[in-house]
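Internal QA ticket QA-208
Title: Verify multi-chain structure generation after dependency bump
Assignee: T.L.

Test input:
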Amino acid sequence: MGLFCFRKTSRRRGGLLKKLLLPRFHPAAFAVLAAFSCAGGPSRAQSATHSSTEPPASREVVDETGRSIRIPQSVRRIVSLAPSLTETIYALGLQDRLVGDTDQCDYPADAQKKTKVGGGINPSVEVIASLHPDLVLVTKSYNRPDTVHSLEELGIASYATDPHTVADILSSVKTLANVLGVPDTGAFVAEDMQHRLDDLQNRIGDLPPKRVLFVVWTQPLISTGQHTFLADALRHAGAVSIVNSSQDWPQVNLEEVAKLQPDYLVFAESHSGDASREVEKLGTLPAWKILHAVRDRRYAVISDAVNRPAPRIVSAIEELARQLHPDAFTEKSGDTKRKTEKKNPLSRSLAFAPVPWRPPHWARSHTSVTGAC
Amino acid sequence: MRPLTFRKLFFQCFILAVILFFVVIIALKFGAVPVSLYALGRDLLRVLLGQSSQISSDYGLIIQNIRFPRIILAIIVGASLSVAGTSFQALLRNPLADPYVLGVSSGAALGAILGLIAEPHLNLSPAFGALLTPLFAFVGAAATITVVYFLGRRQGQIESTTLLLGGVITASFLSAVIVFLMSTVNSSNTRGMVFWLMGNLSTSFQKSVYWFLAGGFLLATAVIYACANDLNILLSGEKEAMHLGVDVRRVRFVVYVAASLLTGLAVSVSGAVGYVGLIVPHIMRLIFGSDHRTLLPTAALGGAIALVIADTLARIVVAPNELAVGAVTAVVGAPLFIYLLRRRVA
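Actual output:
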């Protein structure tokens, strides 16, 4: 690389010299001059980088797992290794800085067009390195420590988030925004999330929570534990999981469920299969038939976003609250809006606020949102 | 060979059956929902008298629809694996042979995973949709058995070593395919797929599936039992057996198919539950001797007892959560096997 610049400079300057000096000078002298100009080339380039850019080239930040990492003053190239982080980047309006993400990063649709570095569990470190990221974003619960270690060995900084509650997700978004140099957008997004959660709380806060079974997998039955952000999201939606486990993804005994008889089964929309058919299927099995929720087809289906600790989780919480407590949402003006939302739950891409969201002026310089100018 | 008296066989089986009965009662009592033995006895009596509508509590329904079917499943799967293990050990004349040694479990796991991937894309009725995965698992097991059989054949004969190696290689090939599938499909599905790699009896099936399993078990076991004498002679060596007038080729083929069928049935409803088919036959051989006419029925009962106990532990050790029963059998089975192995050597 260095050699390449070096020759390029010399040729250009040599050409200039030729025009001016060639008639008088001997080729040997020309060679000396050329050598001189070459020597000048790189030293000039060096001084240029010194004088033009930021005073200290990097800064130190501490991530949510307590690791301190060195990152450049302004992070321009980001690789995300989790769908939730990709969504957060888009929510912060930094999608142009996102140079790579994982196979699972499917939201918003634009994220699918980014360079893929493989799966979140088994990304290709080579592809990540070839993207020359300033920072790789990981989550502690989803990615493997091995990935972080191999990135470390290559001198690539990685920042880990580790949210366990919905409040953690909000603060995580804010902190990440600070690290990425867009604190105002971060505060805006977090405030908006908080606002919507508060609004929800006003509507359903006084109602008794519905007892639900969150179904991750049916045979064997896998649900979610008490200490996950998912369980916390259920609480925000006016639901309480009947599963009391300290494990994150416990295999639950169906007898226990039959004893506790949840009011609702809650499914997250998955890419394979839809929940209504799943419930019909369960209705044919002797062990599941004795659940009143299965017999009466009481179940709620919410967006897959509930599995992702990103700003969009608030939409999933709202969806669940509407299905579990429909009465709390009947009055008020929001009726027409709700109808359109039900038709296409994915259309709420970046519209966090009830009003169509426009990136604030500080964000516009980084984003290419159409019509922003 | 010592003559087999009906009384002796009956006596041995009776003892084991009584043990199995008590184990089942204990398994019925323990679980996430507490029931008293009195209520259990009363409900049992009512079911026997054909008054199942009078079952008292909500818990009666839980026992009837969840716990009891599960115990039945444990009995059938345990007995199948144990009989299959006994047969393979005799057939291959190798004490290390177990029902999975021929790659059947990997075939079933691959079939099940393909079923899980395909199910949402096929427009099936709910009842059939619930059946699809075990069905695919069984087809996978059967296909693997066929492939391994042809791999193990040389000049029209099954050769033990070739068959074993063919099975091991097929298993590792299929595992590779499984890993490939699991790393390409959407990540939320892998949680359920892992189930097929580690045995689990928590799955609920329609009633017909239990009848089908029981029928398949009785049929295959009867076929193997009909060959019990030939298996005894086979233990002294192939040539000797041939000289004594045993049609070794036919016996091998029949027992191989029947034992594989048992394994396929078991694995298609429970995933791969290890060690039951390996250890129970050894223990039964130590207690009752290696005459297959007594060994086969006692191994069946012993396997049922072992798996019911293991599954009860899986249910109650970390209640209200569950363990995979395959983990329990492996934790108990591996040290036990080492012990039996050392004892034999000494």
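Spot checks passed. Residues 58-91 of chain B form the longest helix (34 residues).
Status: verified.
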